[in-house]
Amino acid sequence: MDFTIEVMEINALSDRLSVINASGGDGAPDFVDMEQGQFPRFMSEEQMCFYPLDEFIERDSVAEKMVLNRLDLYSYDGHYYGLEHALCPVTMAYREDLFEEYGVKVPETWEEYMAAAEQFAEHGIYMAVAKDMAMGGDLDELVLMLRPAGCDIVDANGDLNITDEFKTLVMDFIEMQQNGQLYAYETQEEAWPVYADDKVATYFTADWAAGWLRDNVPEQSGKWTMTALPKLTADSGTVSVRGGTGLCMTKYTDKDKESLWDFMTFAMLNKENCITKYEMIALYPPVYEAMAECSSPVEYYGGQNLGALYEELTDEIPIQYQADWKSIFNETFTSNAYDLTEGNITIDEMAEILTEAVTEYNESK
Fold first, then answer.
1. Taking the complete model, does pTM exceed 0.90, yes or no?
2. Is the pLDDT of residue 14 over 70?
3. Under a CB-based contact definition with an 8 Å cutoff, are residues 150 and 204 in contact?
4. Per-residue pLDDT averaged across 221-232, rounded?
5. What mean pLDDT comes out for the span 140-161?
6. What percentage of the chain reaches a pLDDT higher than 70?
7. CB atoms within 10 A of CB 6
8. 217 CB-near residues (< 8 Å, 6+ apart)
9. Dist. CA 252–CA 106, nearest whole Å
10. CB 130 within 8 A of CB 173
11. Complete edge-to-edge strand list for the sheet that includes strand 245-249
């Protein structure tokens, strides 16, 4: 079979697909590897350029083979349009030596996490690093804690979902930064020297970023341990998700869709291929039968078996819903974040501003 693979920057790929839609499908590829954050750009009748996979997913019992919650990243109007490459579990790495030295309990709840931050601050140590909330912070970091509690800003219907937990978490982040408990950075590059100075106690990370500590502070090898996330609420899970890339079939293809689906299952659901992919790029698979063999000691984490931890937490993997208004939400939050951190507006007023912006966007479509 003749085929061509073209590697494109994420935004460039999405821009091209939009042009292809506008031209009626001229020049469309058969497959697209769609980064999950770009998928909302195509969540409309006018822009949807992917072929629904429901008939194949149901016929081949895909829900029994892989973590179905990960497919919601590529769902729209009741249909699935992509197969996810990775589980993308988010857990918490912590400096075991610092916790032992200062007698701080490894937190299992958000309240314990904030208490630990107060203790570490007394010794000049930050609990974690986070983008400066006055600049808008990093909302992806916030929703990491919200998802396991079922409090994500996008609900199952794709509607805005501003909960009390969201409001409290935003203000907790602001307070901890202002109290010197979280290191506030403008760019991520500013954060690594703080880690290198042994001034950071925890690090929330997806599987694909677990190696960033190794790459940026290799001298701390053996000092970090990975564990579950602290629970935001009593009913919260202890693992979140961040990121993802889905293999999608375009609706414009002139190839036999059964043959294309065969390739998708070979690439995404085949046990041996999932294991090989994990060994090459450390993306933990969402495919159940491959999980047990994607487990090996990780030298940087003191020989800890991260794959075993991810497998243990798989049943708690939360759904990450998508919405095409998220960019408007993020832009509105960022533009009003300084006033929130300075006390010029309250978190309730921020919620009203966000709700109004999303409502106006939805009404304009």
1. yes
2. yes
3. no
4. 98
5. 94
6. 99
7. 7
8. 192, 195, 196
9. 52
10. yes
11. 31-35, 245-249, 82-84
Residue 347 makes CB contacts below 8 A (sequence gap 6+) with: 167, 170, 171, 340
The pLDDT tens digits for 57-111 are: 999 999 999 999 999 999 999 999 999 999 999 999 999 999 999 999 999 999 9
Res. 137 pLDDT band, cuts 50 70 90:
very high
Residue 13 phi/psi, 5-degree rounding, is -60, -45
Q: Give the pLDDT score at 1.
A: 56
Report residue 216 CA to chain centroid gap: 21
Q: Output b/e per residue, 228-263; b: 16+ Cβ within 10 A.
A: bbbbbeeebbbbbbbbbbbbbbbebeeeebeebbeb
Sole residue written with tokens 């973590």: 67
Q: Is the dihedral of CA 33, 38, 44, 45 positive or negative?
A: negative
278, 294 contact by CB (below 8 A): yes
Determine contact, residues 325/362, Cβ cutoff 8 Å: yes
pLDDT at 199: 98
Q: How far is CA 131 from CA 134, 135, 159, 174, in A?
A: 9, 8, 26, 10
Q: Which tokens belong to 58?
A: 């149901």
CA distance 301 to 316: 23
d(CA 244, CA 321): 12
pLDDT, tens digit, 9 for 90 and up, residues 273-291: 999 999 998 899 999 999 9
Q: Which of 94, 322, 332 is nearest to 195 (CA)?
A: 94
Distance CA 147, CA 155 (A): 10
